[in-house]
Amino acid sequence: MPTDSDAPPFAEFSFKVTEDRLRRLYAAFIENSEAWKLAFAQFRKKLASNFAITVGLGAAFFLFLILVVIGVVPEKHAPVLLMGSLAGAGTGAMHGQRLQTQFKALKSGDMWVKQSVDSGAVGPWYVGVADSGVRSIMNNANTFYRWEYFSSVESWPTHVAILSARGTSLYIPIDCFASHEAKAFTQKVRAILESHACTDTHRIVAYLRDQSTPCPNCRYELKGAQHATCPECGLDLTFDNIPGARGVVRRRRPPSCPRGP
Ligand SMILES: [Zn+2]
Predict the structure, then answer these.
(1) DSSP per residue over 2-59, as a string?
(2) In degrees to the nearest 10, what's the CA dihedral of 149, 191, 126, 178?
(3) What's the 195 CA to ligand 1 centre distance in angstroms?
(4) Potential cystine with 5: which of 9, 30, 132, 196 (Cβ 3.0-4.6 Å)?
(5) Which residues, by Cβ under 5 Å, contact ligand 1, an ion?
(6) Where are the alpha helices (DSSP H) in the chain?
(7) 202-227 residues labelled b (16+ CB within 10 A) or e (exposed)
(8) CA angle 59, 61, 64 (to 5 degrees)
(9) Distance 233 CA to ligand 1 centre (A)
(10) Cα(3)–Cα(1) distance, rounded to whole angstroms?
């Protein structure tokens, strides 16, 4: 059955993914996942800026009305200013209503759970964790992920999250572990990730995340590059050819293993 690796698992989990479990996972995302927190913050920002624009246009309408009444604005301009600000405020209010509805659906998790159920995420799930990687079997989808695929492991109060920046992350419910086992498991996976996945590629991408650096070949700004190649000219980036990066690799421990590449 296994294709990529026949290594015996050192930890195995078999359980049924139910709607209830999906809801708990959703709550865990909101509580623990930086990416999800960011998405929520951005949505809130969108709501706030929509509100400010709507209120501003509403206020503008009344201001123009007063200016027209006291005769400061010539009457020929009045219809454009009044209708324009009123229509703008109305559109903003309607858009705000839609955003509110979306936000409610997002917050409750209903939308996500429904999508997950529709995409067939409900059912029996097997996860086998071995020294060479992780096998996941769900609804006849038998996938083997090498450790290089993952970038970090986090222990949440409800789940152990083996995270990948590239696609599928694995969330193992805490109740699959005997007491204290989750901590030891997380430590073991972390040690494996540090030895397997923390390659130079990971470290270069981590280094460029906050570092403003020109490509040594074409001077393209490399900050935020997603791979260890220049997006502009395709040069393979190493710690030896990125200006100023030489010292980084000489450190005994690299910058903590990033969530990438
Ligand atoms: Zn370049």
Answers:
(1) -SS--PPPSEEEEEEE-HHHHHHHHHHHHHH-HHHHHHHHHHHHHHHHHHHHHHHHHH
(2) -160
(3) 30
(4) 132
(5) 215, 217-218, 220, 230, 232-233, 235
(6) 19-32, 34-69, 78-108, 110-118, 181-196, 200-210, 246-250
(7) bbbbbbbeebebebbeeeeebeebee
(8) 110
(9) 4
(10) 6
Give dist(CA 195, CA 150) in Å, integer: 12
Q: How far is the CA of 229 from the centre of ligand 1 (A)?
A: 8
Quick check: helix, strand or coil at residue 90? helix
C-alpha of residue 116 to centroid of ligand 1, in Å: 40
Give the up-direction half-sphere exposure of residue 179: CA atoms within 13 A in the CB hemisphere. 0
Under-50 pLDDT residues of the chain: 249-255, 259-261
Side by side, which strands form the sheet with 11-17? 11-17, 123-130, 133-138, 141-146
What residue type is 49 in one-letter code?
S
pTM above 0.70, yes or no: no
Q: Which residue has the tokens 């209503």?
A: 97
pLDDT of res. 257? 52
From ligand 1's centre to the CA of 200, what distance in Å?
18
Joined tokens for residue 140: 């006849």
- The CATH number given to 4-18+122-195 is 2.30.29.30
**Are 179 and 21 within 8 A, CB to CB?**
no
pLDDT at position 4: 54
For the chain, first and last CA: distance in Å?
30
Interval between CA 218 and ligand 1 midpoint (Å): 4
User: What pLDDT score does 253 carry?
Assistant: 46
